[in-house]
Amino acid sequence: MSKSEQAYLDLCKRVLEEGNNRDDRTKTGTLSVFGHQMRFNLADGFPLLTTKKVPFRLIVSELLWFIKGDTNIRYLLENNNHIWNEWAFEKWIESEDYKGPDMTDFGHRSLKDADFKEQYEEQMKLFTDKILTDNQFAEGFGDLGSVYGSQWRSWNTTKGETIDQLKEVITSIKENPYSRRHIVTAWNPEDVPTMALPPCHTMFQFYVSDGKLSCQLYQRSGDIFLGVPFNIASYSLLTCLIAKECNLAPGEFVHTIGDAHIYANHIDQVKTQLTRNPKALPALKLKDFDSIFDVNVEDIEIENYEPHPAIKAPIAV
């Protein structure tokens, strides 16, 4: 059994057994614990969960979207990635430009009302098609504000300048590997009000030892069933990419979560997942590159990934 995957399954069990019932922003309700840490040795295999299928290509395109400093969902849609659609769609339906049927509380209503779900899917299709084909519309409604890509690559300073945190931290790893300041933060209090979703993964730090690069993420809020599997794989991939550029081996990914929660409408899915036995972890294959900023989706592959079937669950918006 993979120790890496077991760390995630142990978190699921802990929250089911010890979690506090809490209201939340989405009005869905959660079981939650505060403060949890998992460790993943990247030498044991790439930590992409096997107890349910996790869509690796979506993780890749989302991470490259962050790395590019992009904040517009057009790039994601061009890569058939729809995981940020709801937040951009919400911006459109709340604008004066929207003339369609009432989409208020679409996240909950589409789960309970089949007729409304059909209307919602029609409006979402119209929205995504316009993002892909209409430059002005994409500029107005596809951008999510100062989310991860912006904070990583274009942090705004009080002097009206910007800081490329990701580029600077890579340079720092190369030039001063034992520094304790290899840090990138996405939590900018001034920009939080303008973000479609304030950063859940707020800060990460790199650590070099014995020729290996490790990364620790602090995540303020973790949707254990849908979000956390993505976060584990995404930051493990980021660590491997930066390690390759810096001529280091991947070390550990350490995942520290503040509010670790299972949504009320994900509990049955988590219980189903816990009945499954983990399989061998897959292997990550990276093509050669000089800079992570030049990496494309086709440069990243996963091998020997044979997971259990996917388990569907609604996203809380």
Question: Please, could you describe this protein's structure?
Answer:
The protein is an alpha+beta fold and 317 residues long. It folds into two domains: 229 residues, Thymidylate Synthase, Chain A, CATH 3.30.572.10; 59 residues, no CATH class. The chain is 38% helix and 21% strand. The chain is built from eleven helices and ten strands. The strands form three sheets. The protein has a six-stranded mixed beta sheet with strand order 1-2-8-7-6-5. Strands 3-4 form a two-stranded antiparallel sheet. A hairpin with a 7-residue loop joins strand 1 and strand 2. Helix 2 packs across helix 10, helix 5 crosses helix 6 and helix 6 crosses helix 7. The protein is globular. The relative contact order is 0.20. One of its GO terms (cellular component) is cytosol. Keywords: Cytoplasm, Methyltransferase, Nucleotide biosynthesis, Transferase. Belongs to the thymidylate synthase family. Bacterial-type ThyA subfamily.
User: What share of the residues does DSSP label as strand, in percent?
Assistant: 15-25%
Task: Write down the CATH class of the largest domain.
Answer: Alpha Beta
The stretches of 5 or more residues where confidence is low (pLDDT under 50) are none
User: Which strand order does the major sheet show?
Assistant: 1-2-8-7-6-5
CATH topology of the largest domain: Thymidylate Synthase, Chain A
Structural class: alpha+beta
- In one word, what is the shape? globular
Provide the CATH architecture of the largest domain: 2-Layer Sandwich
Beta strands, count:
10
| Overall mean pLDDT | 95
Distance between the termini: 34 Å
How do the helices and strands follow one another from N- to C-terminus? HEEHHHHHHHEEHEEEHEHEE
Determine the CATH superfamily of the largest domain.
Thymidylate synthase/dCMP hydroxymethylase domain
Fraction of residues in H or I helices: 25-40%
Main location: cytoplasm
Organism: Gracilibacillus oryzae
Binding site for dUMP: 25, 180-181, 220-223, 231, 261-263
Binding site for (6R)-5,10-methylene-5,6,7,8-tetrahydrofolate: 223, 316
